Amino acid sequence: MTPQDHGAAVAAETARFVTAVQDADPALPVPGCPGWTLADLVRHTGSVHRWFTVLLRQRIQEPPRSRDVDLRLPEGADQYPAWLADSARESAAVFAEGDLDEPMWAWGADQHARFWVRRMLFETLVHRVDAETALGLAPEIDPALAADGVAEFLTNLPFATLFAPGTAELRAENRTIRFTRTDGEGDWLVRLRPDGFGLADADPDGSEVAADATVRADAAELLLLLYGRLDRTAAGVELAGDEELLAHWFAHSAF
Prior knowledge:
Elements: H1 3-21, H2 38-58, H3 80-95, H4 114-134, H5 143-156, E1 175-181, E2 187-193, E3 196-199, E4 213-217, H6 219-226, E5 238-241, H7 243-252
Parallel strand pairs: 1-4
Antiparallel strand pairs: 1-2, 2-3, 4-5
Helix pairs in contact: 1-3, 1-4, 2-3, 2-4, 5-6
């Protein structure tokens, strides 16, 4: 997917989010985010939009020294959905202002402006799913978008120690976990080393490297599994290989 595709998907996912919550009880608990209500969820997502938009507008070249942003948050939680929609419109305007392939500081692997658009997309998508699940709806995720989200998650997780400290424990003596999509093309091999972990390079001759453990599911299930929104015992998830390695991964990969 291109940065433009990601930008369009941010708008679409936000619109779905707003539609789901606009007439809902802001005090409704959100199981996917323990301790949060729908109001908390919407406020968080809109705040992320506005924070990332500020970073994108400035094309920062080093880590920001402050997270202070004028959120223009309305007083009443019943106005949060409209505020979230406005946040997405502001983001879309910034996406269109410049070249998203320009160099820019980012906390993840991709040091370009496009990193923030892609990150905003999956932050929005997962929380849209959280909202719909809390409301008793059956969330749907486009399979191609979900596969892109799996790749984004696994690419950036090694850099997330600051806000996901458990990832520092993802170490092992050259152990591998393969995540495979069952509803289309998509295969990701993660290698745990004594000094860290990350996606492994493809074998030069094109052969498939045997993994110590495997996780198979459709793209949407893989995405929700990686984000902790789906239990690995769910019916659509197939696990094989080293059970202790898989338990170690899921215990320390929370994002």
